[in-house]
TrEMBL record:
Residues 1-20 form the signal peptide. Residues 185-200, 233-246 have a biased composition (Acidic residues). This is Uncharacterized protein. Keywords: Signal. It comes from Coniella lustricola.
Length: 283
């Protein structure tokens, strides 16, 4: 009995020292994690005026829905949520659809650097954090850096305008949705089908830029890998992607560094946010 009590009281002291954060500060941070936010980025496309545009999610990727290069999708609408792993990282989740309400994790593709979203299973092996906010709390950070994000111009197939008006994307569908202009729509469709093969348009996707060493890994994990190697570690070296035997091809893209501005939704009751959507995250 007595022994058991001693052990129980001893444990919190040790962890308490490790986290030398006052509980007040911690509470504050916890509050901030729960606030939902949308995001924007400001980008000048082809010499046009710098324009602030919504960050959207579409087919597993994150884009800027820029008026000069529209990419309609579900507006990013997320909050921080502890990612279940040994690292203890702060993860980032977002709704990916309103109806039904679904949440996904945001992560970085370990090979391409593209910002992606998916179930927890899909994030495994990729870079899933740590996400955070800049000192002034305005911008999204990853690995404590708000300037690691870049917008990259990509070619995408031009969306087909189906009569059903599927994509549900605002701004894309022109004209009344009911009745009369069905014929017009059909004509458009026929025309497009003829030249479908090479019918692409530009859009801007979000990526994480590599650090000086060409790595996408968070600092903390790279330190661990380094230590293992120095400490006579086993075959950990393989982690340093060195087995790329293919030709050293470089593709050039238009790209620009961007910051992701958080638009806090302060009016939203955070208990609703957490209670309603929280548990779905782990599935
Ligand atoms: C934020 O994103 C959600 C989900 O897409 C959307 O319903 C909401 O209207 C957005 N907020 C603003 C201010 O646009």
């Amino acid at each position: 009995m007595v022994l058991g009590l001693l052990i129980v009281t001893a444990v919190p002291v040790v962890t308490g020292v490790a986290e030398a954060i006052s509980s007040k500060k911690q509470q504050n941070a916890q509050m901030k994690e729960k606030i939902k936010f949308n995001m924007t980025a400001t980008l000048s496309v082809d010499g046009g005026p710098p324009t602030e545009a919504w960050i959207v999610l579409h087919e597993g990727r994150m884009y800027i829905d820029h008026p000069a290069a529209p990419r309609p999708g579900h507006k990013f609408n997320g909050y921080y949520f502890k990612y279940p792993s040994d690292h203890g990282y702060q993860g980032l989740v977002s709704t990916i659809s309103d109806d039904p309400p679904m949440l996904n994790w945001l992560y970085i593709d370990k090979d391409t650097g593209a910002v992606r979203y998916g179930s927890r299973k899909e994030t495994i092996g990729h870079v899933f954090g740590p996400w955070g906010w800049s000192e002034n709390e305005q911008f999204l950070t990853i690995d404590e850096d708000d300037w690691r994000f870049i917008a990259v111009e990509e070619d995408i197939p031009r969306p087909k305008k189906t009569a059903e008006g599927k994509g549900g994307a605002e701004g894309e569908i022109k004209g009344g949705q009911d009745g009369n202009n069905n014929d017009v729509d059909k004509d458009d469709e026929d025309e497009e089908e003829e030249e479908e093969e090479e019918d692409t348009e530009k859009c801007w996707a979000i990526y994480l830029s590599r650090d000086q060493d060409g790595s996408l890994k968070p600092k903390a994990e790279r330190r661990v890998a380094q230590q293992r190697r120095n400490g006579g570690g086993e075959d950990e070296q393989e982690e340093e992607e060195e087995e790329e035997d293919g030709p050293d091809v470089r593709y050039t893209h238009k790209w620009a560094p961007i910051r992701l501005l958080r638009k806090l939704q302060l009016g939203v009751d955070s208990t609703w946010v957490k209670g309603r959507n929280g548990p779905a995250v782990n599935r």
